[in-house]
Structure formats: structure tokens, C-alpha cells
């Protein structure tokens, strides 16, 4: 089952993963109020469709402007304006095909300071029927692109269901992502929460891209 980003983030939050504050908007008039409930000074305004590659996509309609489906606002007024531009328009990405998909919801999220962008996913390995972790230091990129050009930057391993998940798996992810100090402990806790969520919610795939490290670590 495909779910929207805002729904996925609500689930992640429910399972104790650190997620930025965000609000879902279905009418442009609500955008200013929703944005003002967050800290700022930067807001990320994101089109919600069941497809990846939204940031690099483009809209069919000229009224939506030339940018993709993920835009930055520096004021609540700008957040409202960007919402107005995208709502009801057709976003085309490499996953939607040329027809594109209509944007009926916008997710406005608190901007984050980013020191590093990483990639972390859990999926079902079809060959072994086990849950696999996929980690890469190349966050913010399409993982297919990384796999094609720099496969050595992807670390993948599966979890034996008989012995289950242990701290060792979390440390292995942390090591693959080049994390250090207190970040390792944070990563071990995150991996545990994500694995529990994956099993309990009977998922096929859980992808965080990018998983970020803040300037404060």
C-alpha cells in the first residue's frame, strides 16, 4: 500500500523516530495559519502525490511556476503563495510518467539545518524472505542512480529472523553511514524502532531519504 509522505511521517513519529514538525494543507487559505504554528524561519512546502522524484519534477501548468514539487519558503506568506501555485495542478516526475498526478494535498514542514544527508531503507529481500537494511552515505540521491554509478557506496545486509535484531545491526548501519560518538547510540535506537515498525505494520519497504545529521550532531 502506498501512503503519502505526511502519513509516513506520522507513523515514524508514532514509533519514536525524530521527525520535523509538519502540517497537511488541503486549501491554500489554511497554509498561512499552519505555517505560523511552526518555528521557521524556513518552511518546506511539498506536493503530496504517490510518486518519488517530486523535487526534480515539473508542473504541466504555467501558473504553478517552473520549480518542482518541493519548494522553500522564507515567510508564512510565501508558504501560502507556493501552496496556492501547486494545489490542484499536475506534477510530472520520473515515476508518474508523462500524464503526471494531480496535487490535492500540500505538506508544510519546518526546515532543518543539514550537515550531512544519508540514505536508510528496510525492505523484504525476495531471495531470502528476510528483512534487509540498505544504507548509503549518498542521501538525497535516487538510490537507483547510486547503485548504477557508485555501488560500493551502498551497504546491504539482512536480519536472521531466528536470532532477530540486535544492537550489532544498529552499529553496522552507523558504521556504514560514517556516524561517530553519540550519533552511533542514536542510530542503534532508530534502527530498533524502524525494524519494530516494519514488522508490526507488515511493510514491504520503508525508505528515509534523506536521513539527516544536524550541525549539532
List the helices and strands and how they pair.
Layout: H1 5-14, E1 22-25, H2 31-36, E2 43-47, E3 58-59, E4 70-73, H3 76-86, E5 90-92, E6 101-102, E7 106-110, E8 116-125, E9 130-136, H4 143-149, E10 154-159, H5 167-176, H6 182-200, E11 205-213
Antiparallel strand pairs: 1-7, 2-4, 2-7, 3-5, 5-6, 8-9, 8-11, 9-10
In words, what does this structure look like?
The chain has helices spanning 5-14, 31-36, 76-86, 143-149, 167-176, 182-200; strands spanning 22-25, 43-47, 58-59, 70-73, 90-92, 101-102, 106-110, 116-125, 130-136, 154-159, 205-213. It has a four-stranded antiparallel sheet with strand order 1-7-2-4. The chain has a four-stranded antiparallel sheet with strand order 10-9-8-11. Strands 3-5-6 form a three-stranded antiparallel sheet, with no helix packed on it. It is of the alpha+beta class. It contains six helices and eleven strands. The relative contact order is 0.16. The chain has two domains: 5-110, Dna Ligase, domain 1, CATH 3.30.1490.20; 116-213, D-amino Acid Aminotransferase, Chain A, domain 1, CATH 3.30.470.20. The protein starts with a helix and ends with a strand. The longest helix has 19 residues, at 182-200. Helix 5 crosses helix 6.
Question: How do you describe this structure in short?
Answer:
This protein is an alpha+beta fold and 217 residues long. The protein is built from 6 helices and 11 strands. The protein is 29% helix and 26% strand.
